[in-house]
Amino acid sequence: MIDASVVICAHTLDRWGELQRAVASVRAQTRAPREIIVVIDNNEALRARAAQEFAGVTVLANAGKPGLSGGRMTGTEHATASVICFLDDDAAADPCWLEDLLEAYRDPAVLGAGGPVVPMWQAPPPSWFPAEFAWVVGCTYAGMDVQDGRIRNPIGANMSVRADVLRRAGGFASELGRRKLGFSVSGRARIGGKAESCEETELCIRASRLFPGGYFAYRQRARVHHVVPAQRATWAYFVNRCLIEGTAKAVLRNLAGSGDGLKTEQRYVREVLPRAVASELKAAMLGKFSSARRAGAIVAGFCLTAFAYTATRLGGMAEDFSQNLSSRAQIWRS
């Protein structure tokens, strides 16, 4: 019988209430997991409190590289079930979440599965915020590419994968993934710096190549609700998150290639965004001012992401070119 280990990664006491809610939502599942594993990244006070208050939960310190990818792999190394599910510490799962995810694994071709991530706004969402950019706040976005119940990759807040697939694929890449003080806490975008997202995307592409014919399933009923604090409902956060995503997509392209790495994004840019802008402008012509603002946000978001992507790609090419010249110079001098 297929069963699951649920891994929840956390790093800050500031989200203690959200972490409690996440653990409680897993305990309330219609199908109980084999185990709940909470991994704490670089915060001994949080680890000690979690170990004291979460009875029956395995609480671990991140034994890998600092950040989300290292935390997830720490949980993976200690998981004993055939499926490993990942839930964000600031997300709460619907009661049938685990049951519906595990139903997908009846198909032996399924490598992993995920479901919708619904925003739980702590303040009213701004009128200019476009649904097509819900990925900015870590949620399922309008126009997400789902074909016959299949997706390229689940969103990390609501993701599961077969344990043997995850381990054989080599786990989450340390070059990607959120670090403490990254964009989700208080960090700023660093164009051309380390990529703080897309770790689940790269893993799923790598796993699909390793297991030809396998796929990742999208389960509509396996929903989680993701907290969106008021500070993320700002223009400044929107800008920073777009820049971070552009940087991450450039790193993803280097790791996975332009075909698999950006196929979903190419459809998003060619089809989803133009259709959304046209729809919003049409509504604006009928007197809906907020629609004009959303159209502007879509265009700005695309430009910011594309700028960061291009700057990171060019920066990498310049670095490679410089290293190549240095190598040639050393050979010439010798």
Verbal overview:
The C terminus is likely disordered. The strands form two sheets. Strands 3-2-1-4-9-6-10-8 form an eight-stranded mixed beta sheet, sandwiched between helices. Strands 5-11-7 form a three-stranded mixed beta sheet. It has 334 residues and is α/β, with parallel strands linked by helices. The chain has one domain: Spore Coat Polysaccharide Biosynthesis Protein SpsA, Chain A (Alpha-Beta Complex), CATH 3.90.550.
Give the topology, please.
Blueprint: E1 4-10, H1 16-27, E2 35-40, H2 44-53, E3 58-61, H3 68-78, E4 83-88, E5 91-93, H4 97-103, E6 110-114, E7 117-121, E8 150-151, E9 158-162, H5 163-168, H6 199-210, E10 215-218, E11 224-228, H7 235-256, H8 258-285, H9 289-333
Parallel strand pairs: 1-2, 1-4, 2-3, 6-10, 7-11
Antiparallel strand pairs: 4-9, 5-11, 6-9, 8-10
Keywords:
46% helix, disordered C terminus, 9 helices, Spore Coat Polysaccharide Biosynthesis Protein SpsA, Chain A, eight-stranded mixed beta sheet, 16% strand, 334 residues, three-stranded mixed beta sheet, alpha/beta, 11 strands
Characterize the overall form.
globular
CATH fold call: Spore Coat Polysaccharide Biosynthesis Protein SpsA, Chain A
The major beta sheet can be summarized as:
8 strands, mixed
User: Number of helical runs?
Assistant: 9
Indicate the low-confidence ranges by residue numbers.
181-193, 321-326, 328-334
Query: Percent of residues in helical segments?
Result: 40-55%
* CATH architecture annotation name: Alpha-Beta Complex
Strand order of the largest sheet: 3-2-1-4-9-6-10-8
Distance between the termini: 64 Å
Query: How would you classify the quaternary structure?
Result: single chain
Number of domains: 1
- Number of extended strands: 11
CATH superfamily: Spore Coat Polysaccharide Biosynthesis Protein SpsA, Chain A
Query: How much strand?
Result: 15-25%
